[in-house]
Amino acid sequence: MASKKNEQGERQVLDWLTAQQPAMVALLETLVNTDSGSYDKAGVDAVGAHIRNFLRGYGIATDVTPDVRFGDAIVARIEQTEGPASNRPILLMGHRDTVFPKGEPQRRPFKIEDGKAYGPGVADMKAGLVMNCFVLAAMKQFGGAPAPVTGLFTGDEEIGSPFSRKVIEQHASGARAVFNSEPGRPGDGVVTGRKGGMFMRFEIAGKAAHSGANFEVGISAINELAHKTLALNALTDLKRGITLNVGVVSGGQTVNTVAPWAKGEVDLRFITRADRDETMAKVEAIMAKSYVPGTTAKLEITGDFLPLVENADGKALYDHYAAGMRDIGGDPKPLFTGGCADSGFAQATGAPTICAVGPIGGRVHSPDEYLEIDSLVPRAQALALAIMRLPVEGQMK
Ligand SMILES: [Zn+2]
Q: CA angle at residue 54 from 49 to 57, to 5 degrees?
């Protein structure tokens, strides 16, 4: 438990965060109304500019790692003020991109109804960005963190972090704790485990022929796609949490042509790296095999998300975080989800990692996405307590 001095410091931070609720909502409105689909670099960077502005107002400098295609990565760092020197930072993560098409905030701007906020990305995860900003501001003003605190704001998570992955790995590597502020789940849920995922595209080449005059000369890519689809489906093993979904297919030329081409997209989900490797070997074998003689296929990986594995480090970090949340009246629960996030990349570097510590929301990636306004302050407080109460280096139980 905290000492008297620490208790006073904690009280100061908790009270300040409570008083910031209107400012949190105002920043959230600004971020939601700034259009930032993953492929809209200018928009994602505009959200970044608002964040940098906010942090600058509290004397927090930011570094930018630029990218030409996707949103730049922004890094803020609060130096350690308490306890024995430690260079292993605490990392707070969040992504600025959304899944929505350009113009969505104009069509569907930020609004509040019955204690819930609505708008594109309001929960996933602009509220998490706001929370991280205010927690960084609190640490900067009042101190109390037993290690440097790094805030990482990336811009391409919804498409698998093609650019940011290496920046995440760089900052997570050696971090003593990583908190990813994806939306918290209704009922104080925090995510301690996530599946990993692979997005793939496959293309099959056959041979065109007139389906009446020269049927036997043709080689049907569509028939091959049907065989491959069934073979991929057969790899699903629900007990082990392995699923394969052929979610998109297309192919063929005309109704009276034997199909010269066909293509499909597959989403593979898994819980462990071993399951991923084993299943991928089988997927590759299915692609290499010609069920219809004469067809060929090629496979392209378009997304590669690592799982958040439920390990001892993650459990210890969750228990630590949950204890603070209980102290402010919360009732936290650890959850496992099939959805992927950047926390998998962070954990794979060896850092203790938990996810969905952001403000609570739901129906993400849909027009009904909402954020529970009343969760902004307690979630920020729980995160601040988790940071301030991290034990002295090396003594994490
Ligand atoms: Zn997200």
A: 125
